[in-house]
Hints:
Elements: H1 3-26, H2 34-43, H3 56-83, H4 88-105
Amino acid sequence: MSHAFHKFWLKVTAIVVGSFGPVFFLGTMAATMKPARWTLDLISWPLDGATTYASPDTRFLSALTGGFLAGWGAMIWCLSIWVYDHAPEAVRWTAIAGIIMWFCAR
């Protein structure tokens, strides 16, 4: 794969990861919690509607998760534009390691 192709996919990854930030942040408010509740229900398969945002603790953790994901997406984007040209393999493996850890730790 070409250098430009890898850089493109890093940006796609940044957008996908970062897009969950606003979803989970908006889950902290009653009027906008449906997308976050559905996403959390999807992640904790099966889709059964058992996941709720009734607890203040869940809303607090949702706000933190939203901030972490938005920041992680921004970091991947910045790595793709400021660092990738100087150390492409290191940036690529850094993003892959972060994504693997996210799925293993959950």
